[in-house]
Specification:
The complex is a heterodimer of chains A (about 110) and B (about 110). With about 110 residues, chain A is mainly β. Chain A is built from no helices and eleven strands. Chain A has strands at about 5, 10-15, 20-25, 30-35, 45-50, 55, 65-70, 75-80, 85-95, 100-105, 105-110. Chain B is globular, with a radius of gyration of 13 Å. The chains are: A mainly beta (about 110), B mainly beta (about 110).
Protein backbone atom coordinates (compact mmCIF):
# COMPACT_ATOMS: atom_id res chain seq x y z
CA UNK A 1 0.00 0.00 0.00
CA UNK A 2 2.93 2.34 0.63
CA UNK A 3 3.03 4.98 -2.11
CA UNK A 4 6.71 5.94 -1.88
CA UNK A 5 9.05 3.64 -0.02
CA UNK A 6 12.73 3.99 0.84
CA UNK A 7 15.27 1.56 2.20
CA UNK A 8 16.98 1.57 4.54
CA UNK A 9 15.28 3.79 7.08
CA UNK A 10 18.46 4.20 9.11
CA UNK A 11 22.03 4.04 7.87
CA UNK A 12 25.05 4.40 10.15
CA UNK A 13 28.43 4.10 8.48
CA UNK A 14 32.05 5.16 8.63
CA UNK A 15 33.66 7.98 6.71
CA UNK A 16 35.03 6.88 3.36
CA UNK A 17 32.49 4.10 2.84
CA UNK A 18 30.17 3.78 -0.17
CA UNK A 19 26.44 3.32 0.40
CA UNK A 20 23.19 3.20 -1.54
CA UNK A 21 19.63 4.23 -0.74
CA UNK A 22 16.75 2.75 -2.71
CA UNK A 23 13.44 4.37 -3.59
CA UNK A 24 10.35 2.94 -5.20
CA UNK A 25 6.97 4.49 -5.99
CA UNK A 26 3.81 2.60 -6.93
CA UNK A 27 1.80 5.67 -7.95
CA UNK A 28 2.60 5.47 -11.64
CA UNK A 29 4.24 8.90 -11.51
CA UNK A 30 6.60 10.13 -14.20
CA UNK A 31 8.83 12.34 -12.05
CA UNK A 32 10.97 11.42 -9.06
CA UNK A 33 13.23 13.46 -6.79
CA UNK A 34 15.92 13.23 -4.14
CA UNK A 35 16.06 15.83 -1.37
CA UNK A 36 18.48 16.35 1.50
CA UNK A 37 17.15 17.70 4.81
CA UNK A 38 19.62 19.06 7.33
CA UNK A 39 19.31 19.20 11.09
CA UNK A 40 17.49 22.55 10.90
CA UNK A 41 14.87 20.98 8.64
CA UNK A 42 16.01 22.92 5.58
CA UNK A 43 15.07 20.96 2.47
CA UNK A 44 17.35 21.02 -0.56
CA UNK A 45 16.61 19.47 -3.97
CA UNK A 46 19.44 17.28 -5.21
CA UNK A 47 18.17 15.54 -8.32
CA UNK A 48 15.04 15.11 -10.36
CA UNK A 49 14.24 12.52 -13.01
CA UNK A 50 11.42 12.61 -15.51
CA UNK A 51 10.68 9.41 -17.41
CA UNK A 52 14.06 8.01 -16.36
CA UNK A 53 15.94 11.06 -17.63
CA UNK A 54 17.86 13.45 -15.39
CA UNK A 55 16.30 16.93 -15.50
CA UNK A 56 17.65 18.57 -12.36
CA UNK A 57 21.14 18.19 -10.98
CA UNK A 58 21.73 20.84 -8.37
CA UNK A 59 25.22 21.66 -7.13
CA UNK A 60 25.73 18.26 -5.60
CA UNK A 61 29.21 16.71 -5.30
CA UNK A 62 29.78 14.08 -7.95
CA UNK A 63 30.24 11.54 -5.15
CA UNK A 64 26.43 11.40 -5.33
CA UNK A 65 25.12 9.47 -8.31
CA UNK A 66 21.43 8.81 -8.93
CA UNK A 67 20.28 5.89 -11.03
CA UNK A 68 16.82 5.30 -12.43
CA UNK A 69 16.48 1.74 -13.78
CA UNK A 70 12.80 2.36 -14.56
CA UNK A 71 10.13 4.99 -13.92
CA UNK A 72 9.18 3.46 -10.57
CA UNK A 73 12.68 3.47 -9.07
CA UNK A 74 15.26 6.13 -8.30
CA UNK A 75 18.25 5.01 -6.30
CA UNK A 76 20.99 7.15 -4.80
CA UNK A 77 24.56 5.95 -4.52
CA UNK A 78 27.06 7.86 -2.43
CA UNK A 79 30.82 7.31 -2.69
CA UNK A 80 33.46 8.20 -0.13
CA UNK A 81 31.03 9.34 2.53
CA UNK A 82 31.93 12.45 4.53
CA UNK A 83 30.77 13.71 7.93
CA UNK A 84 28.82 16.51 6.21
CA UNK A 85 26.72 13.96 4.36
CA UNK A 86 24.91 13.16 7.63
CA UNK A 87 21.29 14.18 7.07
CA UNK A 88 17.87 12.80 6.26
CA UNK A 89 17.42 11.95 2.58
CA UNK A 90 13.92 11.99 1.11
CA UNK A 91 12.72 10.51 -2.11
CA UNK A 92 9.56 11.96 -3.66
CA UNK A 93 7.47 11.56 -6.78
CA UNK A 94 4.86 13.54 -8.69
CA UNK A 95 2.72 12.99 -11.76
CA UNK A 96 4.11 16.12 -13.37
CA UNK A 97 6.59 18.80 -12.38
CA UNK A 98 3.98 21.25 -11.14
CA UNK A 99 1.89 18.72 -9.29
CA UNK A 100 1.79 17.64 -5.66
CA UNK A 101 4.85 15.71 -4.54
CA UNK A 102 4.52 12.51 -2.51
CA UNK A 103 7.37 11.91 -0.12
CA UNK A 104 8.88 8.73 1.25
CA UNK A 105 9.51 8.29 4.98
CA UNK A 106 13.16 9.32 4.72
CA UNK A 107 16.53 7.66 5.25
CA UNK A 108 18.46 8.89 8.26
CA UNK A 109 22.15 8.76 7.36
CA UNK A 110 24.78 9.17 10.05
CA UNK A 111 28.43 9.21 9.03
CA UNK A 112 30.90 8.61 11.85
CA UNK B 1 14.93 33.67 -9.21
CA UNK B 2 11.90 32.17 -7.54
CA UNK B 3 11.88 32.17 -3.75
CA UNK B 4 9.71 31.52 -0.72
CA UNK B 5 10.02 33.28 2.63
CA UNK B 6 8.16 32.02 5.65
CA UNK B 7 8.17 33.16 9.24
CA UNK B 8 10.85 31.75 11.46
CA UNK B 9 9.89 29.43 14.24
CA UNK B 10 9.44 27.91 16.51
CA UNK B 11 5.87 28.98 17.09
CA UNK B 12 4.48 27.86 20.44
CA UNK B 13 0.73 28.00 21.08
CA UNK B 14 -1.72 26.66 23.58
CA UNK B 15 -4.39 24.26 22.45
CA UNK B 16 -7.39 25.99 20.81
CA UNK B 17 -5.36 29.11 19.97
CA UNK B 18 -5.50 30.74 16.53
CA UNK B 19 -2.62 29.98 14.20
CA UNK B 20 -1.09 32.08 11.43
CA UNK B 21 2.11 31.16 9.64
CA UNK B 22 3.14 33.80 7.14
CA UNK B 23 4.44 32.94 3.70
CA UNK B 24 5.41 35.33 0.90
CA UNK B 25 6.86 34.46 -2.46
CA UNK B 26 8.71 35.84 -5.45
CA UNK B 27 8.07 34.21 -8.79
CA UNK B 28 7.81 34.91 -12.49
CA UNK B 29 4.54 33.90 -14.04
CA UNK B 30 1.71 32.34 -12.10
CA UNK B 31 2.98 29.73 -9.67
CA UNK B 32 1.09 26.98 -7.93
CA UNK B 33 1.37 27.37 -4.16
CA UNK B 34 1.49 24.60 -1.57
CA UNK B 35 1.63 24.00 2.14
CA UNK B 36 3.26 20.75 3.22
CA UNK B 37 3.38 19.38 6.77
CA UNK B 38 6.04 17.14 8.28
CA UNK B 39 5.13 15.28 11.46
CA UNK B 40 7.99 14.05 13.67
CA UNK B 41 9.94 11.22 12.10
CA UNK B 42 7.97 11.29 8.85
CA UNK B 43 8.24 12.62 5.32
CA UNK B 44 6.44 15.70 4.07
CA UNK B 45 2.82 15.41 3.01
CA UNK B 46 0.60 17.85 1.21
CA UNK B 47 -1.67 19.86 3.50
CA UNK B 48 -3.32 22.11 0.91
CA UNK B 49 -2.66 23.91 -2.35
CA UNK B 50 -3.92 26.65 -4.64
CA UNK B 51 -3.22 27.02 -8.31
CA UNK B 52 -4.49 30.50 -9.18
CA UNK B 53 -5.06 33.91 -7.66
CA UNK B 54 -7.86 34.17 -5.06
CA UNK B 55 -8.11 30.39 -4.75
CA UNK B 56 -8.46 29.15 -1.19
CA UNK B 57 -6.95 25.81 -0.26
CA UNK B 58 -8.32 24.05 2.81
CA UNK B 59 -7.83 20.78 4.64
CA UNK B 60 -8.15 19.52 8.24
CA UNK B 61 -9.28 22.97 9.42
CA UNK B 62 -6.30 24.72 7.83
CA UNK B 63 -6.81 27.38 5.16
CA UNK B 64 -4.64 29.54 2.92
CA UNK B 65 -5.65 32.04 0.22
CA UNK B 66 -3.53 32.76 -2.87
CA UNK B 67 -3.08 36.55 -2.80
CA UNK B 68 -1.40 37.75 -5.96
CA UNK B 69 -1.48 41.44 -4.99
CA UNK B 70 0.53 40.81 -1.84
CA UNK B 71 2.34 37.70 -3.16
CA UNK B 72 1.31 35.82 -0.05
CA UNK B 73 -0.12 32.45 0.95
CA UNK B 74 -0.50 32.61 4.73
CA UNK B 75 -1.58 29.47 6.58
CA UNK B 76 -4.32 29.79 9.20
CA UNK B 77 -6.23 27.56 11.57
CA UNK B 78 -8.87 28.72 13.98
CA UNK B 79 -8.20 26.30 16.82
CA UNK B 80 -5.01 24.25 16.95
CA UNK B 81 -4.65 20.86 18.62
CA UNK B 82 -1.65 19.14 20.16
CA UNK B 83 -1.68 16.80 17.17
CA UNK B 84 -0.94 19.77 14.87
CA UNK B 85 2.58 20.00 16.29
CA UNK B 86 4.80 19.60 13.23
CA UNK B 87 6.98 21.50 10.78
CA UNK B 88 5.09 23.41 8.08
CA UNK B 89 6.62 24.20 4.68
CA UNK B 90 5.34 26.74 2.18
CA UNK B 91 6.32 25.93 -1.41
CA UNK B 92 5.81 27.11 -4.97
CA UNK B 93 6.20 25.82 -8.47
CA UNK B 94 6.21 28.35 -11.28
CA UNK B 95 6.23 25.81 -14.08
CA UNK B 96 9.92 25.07 -13.90
CA UNK B 97 11.40 21.72 -13.16
CA UNK B 98 11.65 22.24 -9.44
CA UNK B 99 9.48 23.14 -6.50
CA UNK B 100 10.93 25.82 -4.22
CA UNK B 101 10.44 25.14 -0.51
CA UNK B 102 10.58 27.64 2.32
CA UNK B 103 12.80 27.03 5.32
CA UNK B 104 9.99 25.47 7.36
CA UNK B 105 8.25 26.70 10.52
CA UNK B 106 8.13 24.46 13.54
CA UNK B 107 4.88 24.56 15.51
CA UNK B 108 4.55 23.36 19.11
CA UNK B 109 1.07 23.13 20.59
CA UNK B 110 0.81 22.76 24.38
CA UNK B 111 -2.08 21.00 26.08
Amino acid sequence: DTAVSQTPKYLVTQMGNDKSIKCEQNLGHDTMYWYKQDSKKFLKIMFSYNNKELIINETVPNRFSPKSPDKAHLNLHINSLELGDSAVYFCASSQDIQETQYFGPGTRLLVL
Amino acid sequence: GDSVTQMEGPVTLSEEAFLTINCTYTATGYPSLFWYVQYPGEGLQLLLKATKADDKGSNKGFEATYRKETTSFHLEKGSVQVSDSAVYFCALNAGGFKTIFGAGTRLFVKA
